[in-house]
Structure formats: C-alpha cells, structure tokens
Amino acid sequence: MNYLIESKIELKGSQKKVWELISTPGILESVHPFCKENKVLLWKENNEKKDLLVYLNGLEYYREFKKWDAPYGFELKIGKKEGKKSKVVWKIKKNGGHSELKITVFPYRSSKIPKIFYFWVHYFYIRPKLKNYLSSVLNGINWYLDNKIKVKKNQFGSHPWFT
Predict the structure, then answer these.
(1) Alpha carbon distance 6, 104 (integer Å)
(2) 107: Cβ–Cβ under 8 A, 6 or more apart, which residues?
C-alpha cells in the first residue's frame, strides 16, 4: 500500500525564481515556519548536499539530497541522524507565467505502530498532520516570494510535532 502524502501550491514566481529560492543553502530559516535553524553540513555544486533542520522544539532532522535536478526540483531523505528516513520529493512545474511547487513525502513506517493498526493511524492521524505541515511550509515559501520578508515562527499556526 502506498502511503505517500503530497501538497502543492500555485506561486507567482517563475520556475527559475522558485528554483533559485528553494535551492539556496540554508533557505529554510527564511521560509519554514517551524524552523529554528537550517545548518549546511556539506554543499558541493554538483555533488553531495547535506544539511540539518532544527525545529522550534529542538528536534533535529538530517536532510541528505539524493537527486538534484535543476531547475525542476530535488529528492532527499530526511530523519533523525541514526533513525529511519523518509523520502521527500520537491518538484517545480511551469504553469503559464506562474509555477507550481509540489512536495511529496513517502514517510517511513514506524515500528512503534503495530502493522494491523498502521492504515488507520496513517489516514486519521499521520496524513492530516503531515498535510498541515506541508501546507505551512508551502505557504512560507509563497509568503517569502511575495514579500521578501522572513516567515515568522508558527506564522500559519503551530504544529504539535515541531513546536
């Protein structure tokens, strides 16, 4: 069974402008409403890229970029340093004079949830919380593109997992 979760937003900026923003090292500190710190660990032009996302509540997630497809998007793995990782795909698509940014998450399955209950927990708890999270991140990107002002902490509402 496929448990992917995705969210997308229509942005006023061109595909190139959106790409330039989301591919900037450390950009999450300006666009992510639940980000306390976005520390670059390794950022080579056409090679490895790794960073650390520290959430408002102190939770640390490491991001390791697996595919870098300028100016269309990227694919990464995210999770705790020694823990399971989720796959995340960011895609930018031209849409007339605008662009569409879509984030798709393929969450890892937690071993803390018995397999027999996972479907229900996923659809009634994990999925809605993750969609809310993705919506806040996309709204933060939209806000920054429109206003050139750093997003405030919890600007689009708080989140129980990260604040």
Answers:
(1) 4
(2) 3, 5, 86, 122, 126, 130
- Alpha-carbon distance of 150 to 61, in angstroms, equals 21
- Closest among 20, 27, 21 to 51, alpha carbons compared: 27
Helix (H) or strand (E) holding 118: helix 115-121
Q: Strand 98-106 vs strand 5-11: parallel, antiparallel, or unpaired?
A: antiparallel
CA angle 39, 155, 23 (to 5 degrees): 35
Express each pLDDT in 100-128 by its tens digit: 999 999 999 888 899 899 999 999 999 99
The sign one gets for the Cα dihedral 60, 46, 101, 99 is positive
Distance CA 7, CA 16 (A): 20
DSSP state of 110: P
Report yes or no on whether pTM surpasses 0.90.
yes
Report how far residue 106's alpha carbon sits from residue 47's, in angstroms, rounded to the nearest whole number: 23
